[in-house]
Amino acid sequence: MIRVLVAEDQSAVRAGLVLILRSAPGIEVAGEAEDGQRAVDLARDLRPDVVLMDVRMPRLDGVSATRQIVAEQLADVLVLTTFDFDAYVFGALRAGAAGFLLKSAEADDLIDAVRTVARGEGIVAPAVTRRLIAEFAAASAREATVDPAVLDTLTRREREVLSCLGEGLSNAGIAEQLDMAEGTVKTHVSRLLGKLGLRSRVQAAVLARELMR
């Protein structure tokens, strides 16, 4: 059972999200939060698998809430965003969000996204993700230049996996491309995140894009 905490300040939207999630087999709504601070408090108390997090909320915004939840390893965070010119999403990714979802997504896409993040695959909707990663990498490149030497700690296989993450591939996609077992891919992803000091596979994808510029 995947336990989800829904954090959304608009009650009507939150009710709709809860209704969709409760209709899906294998998913349980563990709690609801109307602002970012409440989301952090409930994440500490309930320890859900996934927090569905709106970025624009009162008291504590979704980016700050995501940063706290990820830092304390309370749950994986799936960010809700309108995406278009939404600078908040970049902050959420820097904070370690596991993935993102457009607010305009269909019910099936919402359910699939939650399940994807719960499996440990933070990249949702590959076509949109590639665009997001490209924009985020471009923004990061204006702030600082990534030193390719950071890759020296990685094995050849880990570098190949990192490259695939930069292409927006899921674990299954990486396994197929590199002719590996999916479980082995998960191990490589976990190890390279640790070696590079990153919080999420989305951050790893951004790093890969920057290094491939």
Can you lay out the helices and strands and say which pair or pack?
Elements lengths: L1 E6 L3 H12 L4 E7 L2 H11 L3 E5 L7 H10 L4 E6 L6 H7 L4 E4 L4 H12 L7 H18 L12 H11 L4 H8 L3 H15 L4 H11 L2
Parallel strand pairs: 1-2, 1-3, 3-4, 4-5
Helix pairs in contact: 2-3, 3-4, 6-10, 7-8, 7-9, 7-10, 8-9
InterPro entries: CheY-like_superfamily, NreC/VraR/RcsB-like_REC, Sig_transdc_resp-reg_C-effctor, Sig_transdc_resp-reg_receiver, Tscrpt_reg_LuxR_C, WalR-like
Pfam families: GerE, Response_reg
Keywords: DNA-binding, Phosphoprotein, Transcription, Transcription regulation
Description:
The chain is an alpha/beta fold and 213 residues long. It has 10 helices and 5 strands. Strands 2-1-3-4-5 form a 5-stranded parallel β-sheet, sandwiched between helices. Helix 3 packs parallel to helix 4 and helix 8 packs across helix 9. The longest helix has 18 residues. The protein is globular and about 50 Å long. The N and C termini lie far apart (41 Å). The mean pLDDT is 84. This is Response regulator transcription factor. It comes from Streptomyces thermoviolaceus subsp. thermoviolaceus.
